[in-house]
Fold each of these.
Amino acid sequence: MTDQIMTDEPPETVEYQLRTADESSVATDGGTTVSSDTVDGETDAVDATLDALESDGLSGYNYAYLDEHTKREVRRSMLKAVAIPGHQVPYASRPMPLARGWGTGGIQASLSILGPDDRFKVIDQGADESVNAANIRRLAENTAEIETTTDTTDADLIQTRHRIPEEVLTDDQILVLQVPITDALRKVDPSDAANRRRHAHKNYGKMWVHLYENVVEWGEINISSRYPTMVGGRYLMDPSPIPRWDVPKLDDADNLFVFAAGREARIYAVPPHTDVEPLAFSDREFTVERFGGQSCHACGSTDTYLVEVSEEAGDTDRETNNTDREFETRYACNDSSFCAKRRENPELPKDHHLDRGGVDWGPKTASETTGSRKTAAGKTKSPGGEAE
Amino acid sequence: MTLLSATGLQTVYGEGCSRCIESTGDRAGTNQCPHCGSVVACAEADLSVREGEVLGIVGESGSGKSSLAEQLALERDPDATTTGMVDYDGYDGNLLAVDYETRHDLRTSDIALVHQHIRDGLNPEFTGGGNVAEKLLSAGWRSYEDVRDRVQELFEATEIPVDRMDDPTSTYSGGMQRRVQIARALATDPELVVLDEPTTGLDVSVQARVLDMFRQVQREEGVACVVVSHDLGVVRLLADRTLVMRHGHIVESGLTDRVMEDPHHEYTQTLINSVI
C-alpha cells in the first residue's frame, strides 16, 4: 500500500521521504545518544528544502499574490457594484498577510485589477511615505511585478486610505478606497438587518433626523468624516472616512471609485459621471472644512486640504536644553506628493496635466483658485460661508 | 363621506381551522378555538369611519380592540394571519394587501398610529423635536427652518414646553411622551389617526389634559380618528360613534350617546353599570 502511494507522488517528494525515513531509523538504532552526524544530516535536509523554496522566490505565489479564483470573485463583485452605484455588494474577503482593518479590502481590490503594465500608487491619509502605504506598495511590487509611483498623475491605480488626491483624476485612472465601516446608517441604527431594509426601500428618515439634531446642537452639520452621501439619487453611501473636503470630488468625476472593506467583506463603487450628493438641508448647506485663511507652510497653497501640525519653531537651540521651547502650530498640505510639486511650482493648478479647463474637482476648481492663491488669506474659503 | 370602510376583518394567532369562527365569539363565550387552539383576536368585524369623525372602540382586555386598530393603521404582526378588506378613500385597492413601500408612504402621509406603548412609537435617543421631525423628514421636507417651525407649532398645539424640544425623549415625563406621540402623528396632517389606549399609564389629571388637548386639535384639524380604549370615559369624551367588542367580535355599535344611555347588549349593560 505504501508503494502504491509513493508511485503516485512526484519523484522529488519520494526521495525526500525515503531519506528522512532512513535517517530516523539510524537515530533510533543509536539508542539515546544522538550522533552529531545525524543532527547535521537532518538540518541539511531542512536547509536544502528551505533553499529550494528560497530560490523559488515569490514565484511560489500566484501573480499578484491572490489566486485567480479570488481575483475573479473580487472583480465580479466590483462589476456588480459598478452596475448598482452606491450599493454594498458582498464578496468573499480572504485573509491577507496583515490584520483586517489595515487595508485588506483595498489590497484585495487593487491586486485583483492590477496588471503588469500598471503603475501603482498607495497613499495613507495623503502621504505616500507612511509605513502601511510603503508596505502595500512593496507587496504589489514583489508579487505583481508592477512599477510604483508617488505621482498622482502618473498612476493607473491608486489605493488610498481616507483621502482623495488633490490633483484631478482622469478616466484612465481607478481610485480604490479602504473602508472601515460600510454602512452610513450604522451611526443611527446598529442593526444591519434593519439598515438593509432601509436601503431596499430608500428609507433614510432616521439619517435625516441625525442631521437635524446635528444642526440643532451645532448650528450647522458638523459631521467631520464619513459624510452620508446620496449616490445616483438612490443609495445612501458611506464615502469612507474622507474629510468633507473630498466629498464633492465624487460627484460627476471622470474616474471610477471603488470602495472595498476587507473586514466587512463588502465592495461598493461610484462609477464615472455619477451624481453624488452629500445630504444637507436646503437652508443648511453642505460645507467643507475651513482653515481661516491659513496656507501650507511649505508650499503656500490655500486651496488644498490642510492639516494642523504642532512643531518646534525653526531656530530653537536644542543644545541649551531649554524646557520653555516654543511650539508653533503650522498648517501643511495633507497631500504630500502634490505639496512637493507646488514647492517646485507654486502656481501649479490641480488640473495642470489635463488639456481642458473648467474641471470641477473638489471644493474649488483649479481655474478659480490659481488667480486668488496666497492673496485669498482672510477670505473664507468654503462655499457654505461662516458657521452660525 | 366615508373615508375608510372595513369588511370582514379577521386576525388569527395560530394555525386556524375551518371551525374557528363558528366556535368563538360572543355566542361561544371565548376567543380561543376549542378544536385547534388558535386564538381568534378579531373576526367578522365591519366598520366605517367618515371624514372628521371619531370612532370609539371599547371592550375588555383581550377583546380584540388593539388587533382591529393595528389592522386599520397598517401595523403588521408577522405572527398573525390577517384577512379582510379595507377600503381607503386615498388609495385604490385593499389596504391590507399593500406592499412595504406603499404602506410606508401611507403611514407617513395619510394614516398615523399613536402606539399604546411609547417605546413602539418613539425613539428615546432622539430629542422630542427629532421624533416629530422624523415624520416630516421622511415625508420629504428638506428645509431645516420649515421643519423647525412646524415642530415648534406642533409642540405648542399639543402643549409640550417648547424649551424642552431639544432634550432627549427619554428625559420626558410620561404625559409629555404621550403628547410627543400625538404631535408626531399629526405632523404631516394625516387623514386618519388611530389612537391605541391614549391614556395608558397617565394619572387622572394628566389624562384629562391630554384628552382635552387632543379633542381640541382634532376638531381644529378636522382629522378622522379611531380611539381604542378600555376606558368608557375616554370614548364618551372623544367618540361620535362607538363599537363594543367582546371575544373578538363587535357586539354592539351606534352613536356614543345611544350606546351609553341605552345599551342593548347584555355585555354593554354590564360594562356601563360597572363604570357608572
Amino acid sequence: MITLENIQCGYGKKVILNNLSGTLERGQLTCLLGRNGAGKTTLFKTVLGILPSLGGTIYYDGKTFQSFNTKQFARYISYVPQAHGTPFSFSVSDVVLMGQYASSDNIWGKPGKKNIDIAKKSIDSLGISHLAEKTFSKLSGGEKQMVLIARAMAQHPVFIAMDEPTSNLDLCNQVKVLQYAKMLTGKGYGVIMNTHSPQQALQYADKVILLDHGTIKQWGKPDDILNTSNVADLYGTPLEIIETTTTNGDKRKILVTT
Amino acid sequence: MKKIPRISLFLLLGLVAMLIGVFSLTIGRFPVSASVIGQLIRSFFDPDSSTQEQIKTVIIDIRLPRIIAAFLVGGTLSITGAAYQGMFRNSMVSPSILGVSAGAGFGAALAILLGFSSIMLQGLSFFFGIVAVVTVYAISLATGRKHDRCLTLILSGMIVATVFTALLSVLKYIADPDNALPTIVYWLMGGLSEIEKTDLCFIATISMIGLVILSISGWKLDLLSFGDDEAKTMGIRVERLRVTVIAVATLMTATAVSISGIIGWVGLIIPHISRMLIGPKNAELLPVAFLIGGIFLLIVDGFSRTVTTMEIPLGITTSLIGAPFFLFILMKTSKKNERDNT
C-alpha cells in the first residue's frame, strides 16, 4: 500500500496541497477528482516521485522514497500519461519494451530475451498484438493509450498511476481504457487514476479522493462520498446524482447536470 | 524505407569506409595508382619490396592522416548530432546547439590573432569550446528550475553562441586584414589540409571513447524521447544521463572543431539518413551515424581537394552538398508520409 502522512505538495516553495493523509491499496482503483487547479496533477506527481514532497512522508509498502533507487521505484509504481506522440518512429514493441528497462540485468539497460518476452506478454494480455510492429506515433489516441498501459504493465509494478487516461478519447475508447484499468485491479495492481469525470468514478472506482481548496475534502467509497451535495459543492455546479436501473436490472448511479 | 538488418548494415558500412579510404589514398594533386598502394602495403611485410620515398611521404605522412581525420571528424559530428537529437527530442538539432562551435571558433581566432602555434591554436579552440558549453549548462541550472530543462539549455546555447560570435566579430574587426584576418576566415570555413599525424592520437582517442559511451547510453536515450517525467518513472536518472551526453558530446565536438574548423550540416543530416536506414533506436543509430558520417566526410573531403586546383574549404562543400541533399530527403519523406496517410 501507499500511505500518505500529512504530506504537503507543491512546486519550489509554493505549497499547493496541505495535510494530505490516507492509504492507497493494491487491488483497488482509486479516482482523484477535483476542479481544474485543485492540485490533482501535483499530488499525482508527488506520489510518483517526480516532485519532492514539501512536508510529511509518503510510505510505499512501509518504505520511504529515498529507500528506493530509481530502478526499484520504477518497479514499484509505473505511470500512464495522457496519450501523446514522440518525434521518432519507435514501433509499439519498442515502446512497450522500454517498460522493461528497470528490470534489465544489463548494466547499460540493454534488454535481454527475458525482457523482450515479458514485453510481448504485456502486449498480448491487452489484445494489441496486431499493433506490435506499427509505428507508435501513427496510432490513434485510443491505441496509443493501450500501448502506454502495456508499457506500464511491462514495468511489473505494484501500482499504476494513470493521468486522465480518457482525455481526448472517443466514448468507445474511453470505455475500453476504463475497463482495462478495472481489469488491472483484478490482477492485483493498485490503480490510481486522475479524472475529470465523476461519472467514471461512480462506475469504476473502488475508492475516491475529492480534492478541494488545497486539501482532501473526502476519501472513501464512491457510494458513500459521491452524492449530489458533495459533487455539486466540489465543482460549484448544480447537478444531481440519481439512482437508476439498467435494462439488465443492475442498479447504477448516474450524474445529470440541472 | 525498409530497415536493413543491422549486422549486414554494420559490415557493409565498414567495407564501404575501407574502400573509400583506399580510393581516397589514390586521388589528389599527385595521383597514385592502386597498384602502388598495394606495393606500399606489401613493403611493410616484405623487406624485398620497396616504394619510392616520395610516394611513401605523400601516402603515409600527408594523405593517410587526412583520410583518417576526415573519417573521425565526420563520424564525431554525426554521432554527437544524433545523440543531441535524441536528448532534445528534436530531429532539427545539431552538435553546435550548445555553443561549442562558436566558442571553439572564437578560441581559434584568438590564437591566430596572438600568433600562437598550431598546437596552441588547437588547444585554445578546444578550451573555449568547452568553456562555452560549461557556461551554457551553468546558465541553464541557474534559470531552469521553473522551466523545461531542454528549452533552457537551447536558449542558453543561443545566448552563449551569440556572445562568442560577437566576440569573434570583434577579433575579425581588429585583425590585420593582410595576414591574420584571411587566416581566421579560412580556418572558420573548415578544412583538413593542416592535419598531422600527431593530431590523430587526440581525436582518435576522444572519438573512440565517446563512440562507446554514447552507444551504450543509447537505450536510455530512447526512454528520454518520451520526456523527463516519463523517463524518470521508467527508472532513468535523467539529469545524470543529460550531463553524460552533454559532457561526452562536447569533448568530441570541441576536439573535432579544434582540428578541422567549423563544418556544418554533417551533424544535422547524417542522423536523418541513419534513422532512415536503421530506425530510431539509439543503441544502433548512434554507431551507424558515426560510420555514415565518416564515409560522408571522406567523400566530401576527397571532392574538396581534387575538384579544382585550389582546395575548397570543407565547410563550403558540406553546405553545398548537404543542403540540397537534405531537401531531397525532406521531399522523399513527405511523399512517403502522403502515401502512408492515404
